[in-house]
Batch of 2 targets.
Target 1
Amino acid sequence: MTAEGLTADLPAASVAERAEIARQVRSASTSFYWAMRLLARPRREAMFAVYAFCRAVDDIADSDQPVERKKAHLADWRGEIDAMFAGRARMAVARVLSGPAQAYGLQRDDFLAVIEGMEMDVDGPIVAPSRSELDHYCDRVASAVGRLCVPIFGERGAAGLAVAGHLGRALQLANILRDVAEDADDGRLYIPHELLDAHGVPVNDPASALAHPRFPAAWRALGREADAAFDSALTAMRRCDRRRIRPARIMMEVYRRNLERMQALSDEALADRTVSKRLVGRGEKLRIALRYGLV
């Protein structure tokens, strides 16, 4: 079956399920939605289903349920991914994903890697991880998602995988930097202890680390690493088909622009919970989508 034939061949129940997933993605009003609007319908719906899967497992990890129940739900998803690849998916999101997984050659290990990333948070909270632990976490929760996306875009080669790796890391680091105050409220701190140690920031707990006068220097050091990851992602994108990789370019531009504006904030504002770090609004996201979508 070709990717373009998926829509006509799906049963009516799956059509309804796909419509519900699209509604959920649209209502989330994310830069992801605007970027994926560029894709042909079968690819767009496949991407929406990947988003819905990631949202489902992330919601489990972030829920207020007891840890053991979270682990059980994530274990259920591990079983569901196995069932999906065996043609026996039960959950709506997995049923919608089963066709694209076959059509675009999505890898079971990448779905399982995303679940592993959620399990890392459930087993946490993660506080000042080692650099290797942070690298592994970024790969699980972000680069693995990229490895699911680039085949749907049509970029199956080494350059597409390089985009997934570098851009996934860049986006996750940008998220960490954006959400540092909210994460501290939840007892989390994803900035690696090597950076904190290098800047003389003791980690007795996340809140005290954020209050330390040298914390902004550690924050900005991680921001430079995110910048470097964005640069590497752009280099990899230039080896890809420009039209195919447009959705990834839009995501990159939104997140990088937001990072640049955060970097321009004062040291006092960086750890201030009252200062919004979501500095690129919906209208600007749409303008970015239009700009790079028309290139």
Target 2
Amino acid sequence: MQSQIKDDTTILKDLKRANDLIKQELANVIVGQETIIEELLISLFSRGHCLLVGVPGLAKTLLISTLAQILNLKFNRIQFTPDLMPSDITGTEILEEDRSTGKKVFRFVKGPVFANIILADEINRTPPKTQAALLQAMQEHEVSAGNETYKLETPFFVMATQNPIEQEGTYPLPEAQLDRFMFSLWIDYPSREEEKLIVRNTTGDIESKLKTVIKRKNILNLQNLVRRIPIADHVIDYAVDLTRKTRPKAEDTPEYIKEWVSWGAGPRACQYLILGAKSRCALEGRPTPEIDDVKRVSHSVLRHRIVTNFNAEAEGIQPADIIDKLLEGM
């Protein structure tokens, strides 16, 4: 037991060091977006997935591809379009002839989902049938084709993007699929100084050389460490109470929840609040999370799990406003 604790302490220091190095390397390419980068790493080491919402041109693709390069992981980008089929994501079986026997056999050709980091670009531009092709991969880390099931290599991380300003010709993600994403991250425009630096860096001929700062095996060890981090009962109670208060039919639910919310967050929100808190404290080199860690990840975990009603829309109330009000009252 003491040996395990000693090993975990060493791994915790390695995680803090890796976090600093990853952010340092990302800063060579990505300007600003410190909060988004922090939450991406929290999700990665929690074995979660992210939905990134932002207008075009905010370096969403560059961020995730750069992260894959720094971590030396296989990266695939899937551009979601209205004519994209499920087999275009998962792969398909083809009929080919065995030259040695002359018999025809089926062979499975793996699709782009067979990678460590997947960028599902503009996921709401494809029909629900194709969107659902990612569900099994995200939840079970496997793909079924025909009578066979194929395991995906870990770590496996999906980052999907959505454009909030173009809704024509889109297929909004159903709540059941939104719930599969640990975080919903909203990326905003850069500040004036950041935008000036972006223009300077991207209009010259200087190319940043990135180096790998952590190996795949170490990433898996760090993900396992996050699961082993101890957590106090009062922190779990806080996460459970926060989640339950988003449900209009639960006991002790505030009146404004009953007035503004149709559906609240499910049990998966509690799990991700705790995992996010554990990962956040580990990335900072702390041995156990506090309530403040739960608060810091609450917007990213809850904003896509709270379904507002007509009353909220009429008053201009957004899920973020409801979360702020909940946190103030707890």
